[in-house]
């Protein structure tokens, strides 16, 4: 009997695990759909001319206007536009060269298509879409400058207080922390930043394995160096960007 109960419990645990996995997958898919919807709205609102170029060249409609994305996913998008005197609606589906994992990857390919259309239509100046996304990477290094400045000032004051017993012209520091206390705080900060750097290294490894085109060697070095120096001013933007790349929201 005990063996039967064990089998039942094992079955229940396995079934619960499968249900949790299905729920997580469904939530991730819902998040991704929402992210793509926001991307579609951004393109339709801010890059109308670029979409018109796509319709005029690839749709072979020189008078195409009011082009809009009617649908987009990780495999491609559908473009709808109006043409002719009667403003008849037409559409065309575009398939990406490969399945896209990030919005930046999607935008780069659309930007490339816009560039092809622009050149074919003899427009010399790059569109805003090309300028913005041609080289943009989802996991490119980006420091929280305000937070970094505050961190740098605090570290500088702490180092000054730990080196000098009466840190003029910052004598008030000695009233808050003694020289030995300042030294201990600096050492603790270094340990915390070192730990954050190790975590950041792990995040970079995972992110680069999943999205190899979104982070360069230089990006990774900058993330790690700045995390060690500035702590959360670098590590938090890295985590946010990685979370967003995996389909999450800010």
TrEMBL record:
InterPro entries: DUF2470 (IPR019595), Haem_oxidase_HugZ-like_sf (IPR037119), TMEM254 (IPR028110). It holds the Pfam family TMEM254. Keywords: Membrane, Transmembrane, Transmembrane helix. The chain crosses the membrane at residues 147-165, 185-210, 222-239. It comes from the Eukaryota. Residues 41-99 form the DUF2470 domain. The keyword Methyltransferase does not apply. The keyword Transmembrane helix applies. This is DUF2470 domain-containing protein. It comes from Smittium angustum.
